[in-house]
UniProtKB/TrEMBL annotation:
This is 4-oxalocrotonate decarboxylase. Keywords: Lyase. It comes from the Bacteria. InterPro entries: Fumarylacetoacetase-like_C, Fumarylacetoacetase_C_sf, Hydratase-Decarb/MhpD_sf. The keyword Lyase applies.
Length: 261
């Protein structure tokens, strides 16, 4: 039986010091359930320290990426308040190990979701989506060489580092076409990534249902007005200092973040 607290401590220390560690799987036999226990232990410690959960995120929503990792399902991570950069903010790359940025689509849920019984088959989380927005997620594996197994990355809270969400627009205005909107990522004005929301599970609405399913399976709760990051619409891009990154989702909006040393 792995020492859940010890593994969570090792990941927390790696993040706070911005120094990578060996993959947990190199020295520990870790099941996927164990990995989620490590993740949840770390999250609950942040919550007790005054850093509340504000939402959930998905990883491996790209079918191609999932095949590369040899997995057949998405993975779930947790967003806490301290990870939210806020509009117009900058980020210090020196506080991370190997930061990368991904353009995403974000969903906002209503204030009633905290009271929902997600195990009730009559509850469909899509019915509680109120808004969507363009978003970026900054990922930063705490492992050496950005290399990991599925269990490693789940324990590491799916490499979650920072995120930023653009202006929210009503969900109903884009719901019928949200499954195939063009997505671009620019670095200081130059287009460096392009894709479509179709890359997110074939339809990003499926990401909302996946969050509900995995939250029930692994014991995560959704706070009122939770944010869901549906997953990357393009491959991640290594970040460089003194660069302004802008992600745009067709018909939804844009979001910018300034990277500093």
């Amino acid at each position: 039986m792995p020492d859940i607290a010890l593994l969570a401590d090792a990941l927390a220390d790696a993040e706070s010091s911005a120094r990578p560690i060996a993959q947990l799987s190199d020295s520990t036999s870790l099941s996927l359930s164990d990995a989620y226990d490590v993740q949840l232990f770390g999250v609950l410690r942040r919550v007790r320290a005054g850093d509340p959960v504000v939402g959930l995120k998905l990883g491996f929503t790209s079918i191609e990426k999932a095949r590369q990792m040899g997995v057949h399902d998405v993975i779930l991570g947790v967003l806490t308040a301290s990870r939210d950069l806020g509009a117009g903010s900058s980020v210090s790359l020196g506080s991370m190990i190997h930061p990368r940025i991904e353009p995403e689509l974000a969903f906002k849920l209503g204030p009633d979701v905290a009271a929902l019984d997600l195990t009730d088959p009559r509850v469909d989380l899509l019915d509680h989506v109120t808004h969507v927005a363009a978003a970026v997620e900054l990922i930063d594996s705490r492992y050496r060489d950005f290399r990991f197994t599925v269990e490693d990355v789940v324990a590491d809270n799916t490499s979650a580092a920072r995120f930023q969400v653009g202006e929210w627009v009503p969900f109903d205005t884009v719901r019928e076409r949200v499954g195939d909107l063009s997505v671009t990522l620019r670095a200081s004005g130059e287009e460096v990534r392009s894709g479509s929301t179709h890359a997110i599970l074939g339809d990003p609405l499926e990401a909302v249902r996946a969050v509900q399913r995995l939250a029930v399976r692994y014991g995560h709760r959704l706070p009122a007005s939770a944010v869901i990051l549906a997953g990357a619409a393009t491959a991640a891009l290594p970040m460089a200092a003194a660069t302004v990154y802008e992600a745009t989702v067709e018909g939804v909006g844009a979001v910018m973040v300034q990277a500093e040393v």
